[in-house]
Design goal:
single chain, 67 residues, mainly alpha, elongated
């Protein structure tokens, strides 16, 4: 069996909170959920998650609206 390595993408310097959130949730889930379980930065995490959810819902809504 071969060992698998996990590549963690770091947000670019000067990245917005939303960009950092998306990078963390997609590439470093274990650390992200460990921080949430520990209660680290919950306000910022909740804010970023809410903005991301609203953005995806708006995009979906715009895509399915009949022309």
């Amino acid at each position: 069996m071969s060992a698998t390595s996990t590549v963690h993408a770091a947000p670019r310097p000067g990245a917005s909170g939303l960009e950092t959130f998306v990078t963390q949730i997609l590439s470093d889930r274990e650390r992200y959920f460990t921080e949430v379980a520990a209660g680290e930065g919950l306000a910022a995490t909740l804010r970023s998650a809410t903005v991301t959810l609203l953005a995806w819902c708006a995009l979906y809504g715009a895509a399915v609206v009949p022309v």
